[in-house]
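Field notebook, page 240. I keep forgetting to write these up properly, so this time I am using the form the group agreed on. The chain and the ligand, IPE, are recorded exactly as supplied. Prediction of the bound pose follows.
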Amino acid sequence: MATGLPRHVACVMDGNGRWAEQKRMPRTEGHRVGEGSVVDVIETSHACGVKWLTLYAFSTENWTRPEEEVEFLMRLVQGALRRHAPWLHLRGIRCRFLGGDDARIPPSLARDIADIVELTEHNTRMTLTVAFDHGGRDAIVRAARTLVRDGIAEDAVTEEALASRFQYPDTPDVDLVIRTSGEQRVSNFMLWQVAYAEWMFPQILWPDFRAEGYRACLEEYRRRNRRYGGLDRIDEMEMI
Ligand code: IPE
Ligand code: IPE
Ligand code: MG
């Protein structure tokens, strides 16, 4: 199937620590500068007409990092919410947080998250989902628990029944996943929703990704040929 603009783009924002280490700075400096790429990717998506953008900000495994780094990330996210909520709302961007409700999330951050979700919930121009305290396996387990809680009979357990029990069931499957920094792995990201996503692994660290790096990925996406297990148009024509 020919591809145009992806409906749903997801970014695994990786390489902040290495960016800082290369410059002999503390890893946290990479997270701080990475905020610039976050803003660029949101603004570019908004300008290009990407309707769904998901950013992987903190995984269920990231809790195992040193306490100071985890605390820094919590403070950074809280500061970012306060800095960016007004313009996100002004531009009609609906903000959501995809993830668990870990008791380790500081209560004041949890309140700020609830506030921005509520402030922007009726916006329709674009949906920005921040995967925060997210794990793909955790999300599947939670959906499965809901199936059981709903007393679903065995033969009614279908892909649709499970998919409808994820945290945001209205979110379309991911079309394009971009993982910066050159690492080529899933790291427990939206396992259910990436079943037929296109993947890109730019060799650039997240703080340097910025609008140019993102635009290049959107451009490359147009050249991809998605098949979904079937045959693409050219194959079909050659067979005739
Ligand atoms: C990604 O950058 C940000 C988070 C996981 C929060 P890293 O912190 O993983 O940076 P590297 O991979 O160590 O360079
Ligand atoms: C994945 O990156 C999580 C985020 C970008 C938030 P990691 O840096 O945590 O993943 P691994 O440990 O290299 O697989
Ligand atoms: Mg990393």
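OBSERVATIONS:
- The pocket of IPE (ligand 1) is lined by residues 13-18, 58, 62, 73, 181 (CB under 6 Å).
- The beta strands are 8-12, 52-59, 93-98, 126-134, 176-179, 198-200.
FOLLOW-UP: compare against the apo run.
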